[in-house]
Amino acid sequence: MDCKPWCVPLNDGHFIPALGFGTAVPMKVPKSQVIEATKIAIDAGFRHIDCAYSYQIEEEVGLAIRSKIADGTVKREDIFYTSKLWPTFSRPELVRPSLEKSLKKLQFDYVDLYIIHFPMPLQPSDKSVPVDENGQVLFDTVDLRDTWEAMEKCKDAGLAKSIGVSNFNHRQLEMILNKPGLKYKPVCNQVECHPYLNQNKLLDFCKSKDIVLVAYCALGTSRDPRWVHQSAPVLLEDPVLGAMAKKYKRSPALIALRYQLQRGVVVLAKSFNEKRIKENLQAFEFQLTSEDIRVLDGLNRNFRYNTAKFFGEHPNYPFSDEY
């Protein structure tokens, strides 16, 4: 795979581009715009595309990628594509069929990375969040080590080049790492991470285990009311970020992205605006001083935009732990 401008090695020998294009769609964005934005991102130079079964846009994203392969812009091996296993498919026998559903929608033979979306199994259902007649979310009791074993089989079958997790705390990661007969370690843990939630402790833990931290919500959030309280602070309006943006003659978004790159974090940037998509790639064109990194570290307030509150009562709810 083309490793320009920057790739990070994974613990299984593969490489992940350090800057990825996020595709989680706010309600107000039509699916047709996802196709256009993904094409623009690939034309601009993005080679890492992050998606998920639950976003319900894998057909559109697959179409965009295939059209860029067809017109000669990229080859399939140039693209690093991530998909995710939704909690309703946590039972081991459902893991491979769920990945195969994604592959069918994408019209791909494999994904580059397949990750467990949340460590909170839900009962199998056609709905994303199954509930009983009283509106209570229907949790499932599945040992995530069994789910992980099924993920390992997907890797062995060549359906996923690499496998990892998302939204796991350090205790849940330890559980997988200490699993008897572990064949493959998770290559990554994709979590919310930005200057207001810098995840320093989790980052140090992941580095010590040779697991890459991947940051979502790195620019704050699209403020989708399904996930985010509307009174939440707007990260990119933070005065410290604003002052630093002036100093470097860059946007606050670029400061936030560069901050992650210099910490060794793989970072996802989501935008459906052509100008911003292209601008986000400028994160490779400048460097923050170590003092400025310290200043940005100081913005941490352990503030989480995506609390996954509808999972709050789940025995595996990951965000009650410190990290």
Describe the 3D structure:
- It is built from 10 helices and 10 strands.
- The protein is α/β, with parallel strands linked by helices.
- The chain has a single domain, classed as TIM Barrel (Alpha-Beta Barrel), CATH 3.20.20.100.
- The strands form 2 sheets. The chain has an 8-stranded parallel β-barrel, surrounded by 4 helices. A two-stranded antiparallel sheet has the order 1-2.
- Strand 6, helix 4 and strand 7 form a beta-alpha-beta unit.
- It is globular, with a radius of gyration of 19 Å.
- This is Aldo-keto reductase family 1, member C14.
- Keywords: NADP, Oxidoreductase.
Q: Report the principal-axis shape.
A: globular
**Structural class, judged by helices and strands?**
alpha/beta
Span between termini: 33 Å
Number of strands: 10
What topology, given as strand order, has the largest sheet? 3-4-5-6-7-8-9-10
Question: Helices and strands in order, then pairings?
Answer:
Layout: E1 7-9, E2 15-17, E3 19-22, H1 31-44, E4 48-50, H2 58-70, E5 80-85, H3 92-106, E6 111-116, H4 144-156, E7 160-166, H5 170-177, E8 188-192, H6 200-208, E9 212-216, H7 239-248, H8 252-262, E10 266-269, H9 274-280, H10 290-297
Parallel strand pairs: 3-4, 3-10, 4-5, 5-6, 6-7, 7-8, 8-9, 9-10
Antiparallel strand pairs: 1-2
Helix pairs in contact: 1-2, 2-3, 3-4, 7-8
